Amino acid sequence: RLMQISEAEGKDEILPPTIQKIIKGYNKYLRPFFDNGPVSVGMSLDIASIDTISEINMDYTATIFLRQRWTDERLCFDGNKSLSLDGRLVEMLWVPDTFIVDSKKSFLHDITVENRLIRIYPNGTVLYALRITTTVACSMDLSKYPMDKQTCTLQLESWGYNINDVMFYWTRGNDSVRGLDTLRLAQYTVEDHFTSVSEAVYETGRYPKLVFHFELKRNILYFILETYVPSILLVVLSWVSFWISQSSVPARICIGVTTVLTMTTLMMGARTSLPNANCFIKAIDVYLGICFSFIFGALLEYAVAHFCTLHRLSSKELPKPNFVAWICWYLCNIPNQTKYPQYIQESFCLQLQLMSNPVSSESVTENLITSKGEDFIGCSSPMSVMKRLFCIFDCFHVKNPYHIDNYARYSFPLSFIIINVFYWVYYLYF
């Protein structure tokens, strides 16, 4: 205790007479206007730099100059000039207990000395300035990444003094925050910023709160050159196989597998700087998924075309089993004790013969109509329906497998262009 008294006396001896007169009888543990209502604290900010904006950690790191002004009637003195004091003398004065709400990590610069400023005016107004580097949390919506806009905030509150003790306000409204107009960020552009005044409600009471909002728009040019253009070129490269002969199996398989693997590598590289969260389906993921689907579809197209070609060649070389004849023989030889009438069996046999051998259709039809008369006419309706069903299934049969590549040359680029139009219109304007 004696040491503290001696240190205080030593400080009084060092201080000039004006400061000694001000400090004499001053109690730094009591706020100004202790019995006469709350003290008003005005604040202003200068944004020196925004160093990093991390999507993985969802935060940003900024260096700011925080300036606070308030009036302390106990510090009034005679004169017309302000007094600039050493920052270390702040320990002898009352200062607001301001803190940054969402700060993860902050520090006060102390090279070469602590970057603090104290200035006292004759009317008792105190200017207290700090240089702080802080990492602040920022909740981001990455569903439209990289065509997204993020709104981050910097919130200032009083830790111990509620609204009955301290009131916060911005000294110049929206102009209280400066430095963003000249700020240059690597990946973002500051589109808008504004300030607001509110109150923070906790279990212990209501506390003054100042909020600085700023909107960041991501620059998409980097992602177009880094991700979108390479993915489009890979899709176009996969279409080259449509102009290569189907007999060149190694060439077409090499193009397909190479583009699939390259696209997979590109998709993995695009996610390295993003959080591994399942709740975010980002715009870039959707586009890479579309490109991967087209590349994989081009590989499957060749597999289908090659299979149809081999199947057609084998069907020409090997005799085709006459399943129609077997069915006809079975239906035409069903015993009469069955529930199917004889004319239905023969008419169904006729339809199968017509589909298998259209050349003899006229003669077979005339013979069956002559022999059965009106009974055949009565069963022609269900037989026609069955014939149409066979025609529908026959539509899926590829008559010439070499035409598959011709269809793919037009359908793949056209569908890719249409999907791109919908993609860019949706993510840029909605």
UniProtKB/TrEMBL annotation:
The protein's topology relative to the membrane is: Multi-pass membrane protein
Q: Does the keyword Mitochondrion apply?
A: no
Using the record's annotation, list all stretches that form the Neurotransmitter-gated ion-channel transmembrane domain.
227-332
GO CC, alphabetical: apical plasma membrane; chloride channel complex; synaptic membrane
Q: Does the keyword Transmembrane apply?
A: yes
**Pfam families per the UniProt record, alphabetical:** Neur_chan_LBD, Neur_chan_memb
Q: Where in the cell is it found?
A: Apical cell membrane; Synaptic cell membrane
Q: From which domain of life does this come? A: Eukaryota
- Which reaction(s) are listed as its catalytic activity? chloride(in) = chloride(out)
Assembly description = Heteropentamer, formed by a combination of alpha (GABRA1-6), beta (GABRB1-3), gamma (GABRG1-3), delta (GABRD), epsilon (GABRE), rho (GABRR1-3), pi (GABRP) and theta (GABRQ) chains, each subunit exhibiting distinct physiological and pharmacological properties.
Similarity remark: Belongs to the ligand-gated ion channel (TC 1.A.9) family. Gamma-aminobutyric acid receptor (TC 1.A.9.5) subfamily. GABRP sub-subfamily.
Tell me what this protein is called: Gamma-aminobutyric acid receptor subunit pi
Species of origin reads: Eurypyga helias (Sunbittern)
Query: Taxonomic classification, please?
Result: Eukaryota, Metazoa, Chordata, Craniata, Vertebrata
